[in-house]
Design goal:
The chain is mainly alpha-helical. Helices cover 67% and strands 4% of the residues. The model has no long low-confidence stretch (mean pLDDT 91).
C-alpha cells in the first residue's frame, strides 16, 4: 500500500503540472487562459491561443503526465496482482489536472490526461480505443456540437461500453469515476453555453 500511495501522490503531482501554462510561458505566448473565454489551461486553448507548437507540446505533456505514473505502477506491480488501490493510481493524474495544487486547485477539463492514463494500461488498449472511437463517432458520423456536449456524450457512451465489455473491475471503476469527475467539472465550469446541435453527416 505504501508503494501504491507513492504512485498516487506522484500521479496527482504530475497531473497538477499545467503544460499549457508552462509552454505558453516558455514560448512567450502570454497568458492563454486569460485570452480564452473559458479560462481553461488545456490542450485546445494551447492550440487556439498559443499556436501549433505550443499545442503539440501541451498535448504531449498532458498525455505523458497521465501515461507515466500509471504505466510505471503497473510495470512495478503488475495489473494481475493489483488491488483496489490501482483505481486511485489511474484517476490521480486526472484529479491533479482538474484540481491542480500549483494553480489554486483549478485546472483543465482532463481530456488529454485521461487518454494518457488509459494508454498507461498498455498492453490493454481497449479503454483508450473505446474513448477515442466515441470522440471520432460524435465528430465524423453523428456530429454533436459544441465541443462541450460532444465531450460529455463521448465520456458517457464510453463509460457505458467499458462497463459492459471490459472485464477488469478496477479499470471499469476507474473510468467510471474519471467520467463522473470530468462530467461534473464541465457542468460546473466556465464553458460558454451554446445550444446542443446533432447532425447526421451522411444526410444532406
Amino acid at each position: 500500500m505504501i508503494r501504491s500511495g507513492m504512485y498516487i501522490v506522484l500521479g496527482y503531482l504530475c497531473g497538477s503540472v499545467l503544460f499549457a501554462r508552462v509552454f505558453a510561458s516558455l514560448l512567450q505566448k502570454g497568458d492563454i487562459t486569460g485570452q480564452s473565454s473559458d479560462g481553461n489551461p488545456g490542450t485546445a486553448n494551447a492550440f487556439m491561443y498559443g499556436g501549433f507548437r505550443c499545442g503539440i507540446l501541451t498535448l504531449c505533456g498532458d498525455m505523458l503526465k497521465g501515461f507515466m505514473p500509471v504505466h510505471m505502477y503497473l510495470k512495478d506491480a503488475g495489473l494481475d496482482f493489483c488491488g483496489p488501490e490501482v483505481i486511485l493510481v489511474i484517476i490521480a493524474p486526472v484529479m491533479g489536472h482538474i484540481f491542480s495544487i500549483f494553480n489554486g486547485f483549478k485546472g483543465g477539463k482532463g481530456i488529454a490526461v485521461t487518454f494518457g492514463c488509459l494508454l498507461g494500461l498498455y498492453p490493454d488498449l481497449q479503454p483508450a480505443l473505446v474513448l477515442a472511437f466515441m470522440f471520432i463517432f460524435f465528430s465524423l458520423v453523428i456530429r454533436i456540437t459544441p465541443h462541450y456536449d460532444r465531450t460529455i456524450w463521448s465520456y458517457r457512451c464510453a463509460a457505458a461500453c467499458i462497463l459492459l465489455f471490459i472485464k477488469n473491475i478496477y479499470i471499469k471503476t476507474a473510468f467510471l469515476l474519471i467520467s463522473l469527475i470530468v462530467n461534473i467539472n464541465m457542468r460546473c465550469g466556465n464553458a460558454k453555453e451554446e445550444k446542443c446541435r446533432v447532425k447526421i453527416l451522411w444526410k444532406h
